[in-house]
Structures are given as structure tokens and as C-alpha cells.
Specification:
Blueprint (H helix, E strand, L loop, with lengths): L1 H4 L1 E4 L2 E4 H5 L6 H11 L7 E8 L14 E10 L3 H19 L5 E10 L4 E3 L2 E3 L4 E4 L1 H6 L1 E5 L5 E5 H4 L7 E8 L4 E14 L5 E3 L11 E2 L5 H8 L6 H17 L6 H14 L3 H10 L10 H14 L4 H18 L5 H10 L5 H29 L1 H15 L4
Parallel strand pairs: 4-12
Antiparallel strand pairs: 1-2, 3-4, 3-14, 5-8, 5-11, 6-7, 9-10, 11-12, 12-13
Length: about 400
Amino acid sequence: MHEQERFVQRGGVFGLDDVVGDFDASGVESLREIADMIRTQARDGVRSAMALAGSAAQSKFQLFPGDCDFFERVHIVAPTREDAVAILALTMIESVARTFTNPLLQFVEMKLGLYPAPYSRDEEAVSQGSPISWGLTDIDGRVVKVVDATGETYRLRMHDVAMDPGFVKLDWVFADRAKDRVVPVSKVIDATWEAPDGSVVALDGVLDSFYQEVYLDPDSKVDIERLVQHVSPDGLENYLEQIGGEIAKYSAEGHENYGKVAKRLYNITRILRRDADASYLRQLFDDPPARLYQVGGTMHALSEAIRADRLDRETIAGQLAALEGTIAECYSGPDRDEIVDLVRRLPELDEDELLAAAERIAAASNVQVSGYFQQKISESPGLKQVYDLVIKQASEPRE
């Protein structure tokens, strides 16, 4: 297959040539250490391959990532699809349990299954088809409680809702003592089931393509190349359509985040071989305003760490100092002094005040960094052309 022919191994990692080309392998060992903490453990009938995705996989030009994204392909050999889904849920629970005693990791949530109908959960509306989030108590009981529009309470069992797994993910906060920072760590899982007849299907119905991952374990290359054979022939078209939908989402009024738009435009320009546009975007991420891109992820990690009081205090203090310096140097809004003061006071705030302050800091930073990227995209005729075409195609009805 076309994708398999372009797999390369370089610097102890492997992936598609262009993707590996964006990865700075100098920090790969520390990333492998985190990956080993959160990866699915080997067991009979289960194989996995850990990869970097998102900003972490593009470290040559995204110098100020907001988080550390991992991607794991979990391949399950089982008699039935139901057995495979049950095994997937079990391996996820085991990952949560295994990291629970790790002093560097703080569990945040697990996503598995989709809401079968619109409900209210903890007095907040959840829509039909949206991912179900599981906290520690929910995982322990294997059930979440929801209320429908009539006020009737339902118990959604993990075993039942996992049969339509949807967006499968685990989230933690990691205390990086060596760098005095706390960072969100996520692991998206793409699970496949191999039936007794040798056929392979994705448990969520769609086998993700291979256009973003940098795989950390060369020994898993044979497994990945085997899975490539099962990717849909129109995988590239589907991937570009998915990225285009995300660009439209982050361009929509009220949801603007042109930093995320720029990242996704980079992926598109790279695939389409628009080298000048890709190079232009890479340079933007070197500019000081791009440092504010990391504030949103940092605030998420800090608020979780401060609320739980679990992770190392000195590491959190180091992250707070670094965040204060970033905002003081790069944020130019008239409320800069107020935002800096809010950062200093975060550890003193009660939970509601902390969450409100974190949202305020992240939103203010996003407005500025988003405006910066929006302006720069509009100033490049070639890139603006790509952007306009993507938005136009995303707005057209699917056949």
C-alpha cells in the first residue's frame, strides 16, 4: 500500500517519511519513559504500539506545545467482537490502576463509549453520541448515572456502552521534575479486533490512517505494516476531510482557535506538497506570540494538579513561575498585569475560584495567540487560498 512504502526508521523511531522529518529525536528517551508508564501491558491476544501525535510529534517546529499527546494502536485477537471490546475496557482500567500509585502521574479521566440518548449528568446536559467520561469512582463501579428529560434516572453500564466505543482516550497530568513543569498527557487508542478467520476490523468502525504518528518502538513496525493493509483505499481523502472539519470547527464564531487551525493547515500543506506554505507556517511557530499557545494546556494541567494536591509541590511552583514569565513576556493585552497577578494567586484560590481563574487566563491567552495566527494566515496569499478552499469544502453537504 502507498502508506507502507513510505515508512522510514530514523533516530530510533519510525513512521511516514514526512512525519518523522518533523520530529526532533533528541528528547525521545524521556518521551519513551512516559510512554512506558501509560502503555497497554502485553497479555495473551493483545499487542500494542505506542506513538507520538499532535505537537509532540512535530517537535522540530512546535517548540511550545500545549500538551503531550500519545497515540496507541491496540490489536486484540478474540473469538467475538464483544469479547474484544470487553478486553479493551479491561486493559484501559488496568492502565488507570497501574498509574494510580505513580507519584509523577495524576489520573484525570477515561473516555469510552457514547451516550445512547440525550441526558443530564451531574446537572449538565450531554448530547446523544458524545463520548462518555469516566472518573475513578465511575470506573470502580463500572457505571455512570444520568437523567433523561422526564427526570428518570438511568444507569449506563460500561460493558453496554463500550460496545459502541467511540472516541477512546485516557488523560493524566504528568509532573516533569527535570523541567519543573506539569503537562497534560493523553493517550488516544485506536483498537482493532482480529477474528478467528483472520479478518481485522476497527472496534469503532474506522481504522485511523497513519498520517500523524511517530512510533517509538521499532520492534512494533511489523505489526503496524500489517495493519496498514487494512486501511481504506480512500484513507487519505478521509483524513483530509477530517482535518478540514476540524479547521472549520476552530474557525467558527465563538470557537475561534487559529493556533489549532494553523497546526492542521500545516498537516494539509505538507501532504499536498505545498512546501512554501508549510515552511511559512513552521516559521510562525518560532515567533514569541506562539509561546502563548501552550497556556491553555498548562492551565488545564495546573488546575488539576492544584485541586488534587497530589503531585510534587516544587514542580508545580516551577511551572507557575514559568507560566508567569511567559505571560509577562508574550502577552500584550491591557489586562496583562491582572492576568499575571491571577497566575501568582492560583494556589491560594478555592476550587471554584481556581477553575474560573484558569478559564480566564487560558481564554485571554487564546484570544491573543488566535488573533496572531489568524492575521498571519490571511497575510499569506498561498496559505489563504488553501484555507478558503478547506472552509468551502467543509461547508458543502456530503454526498
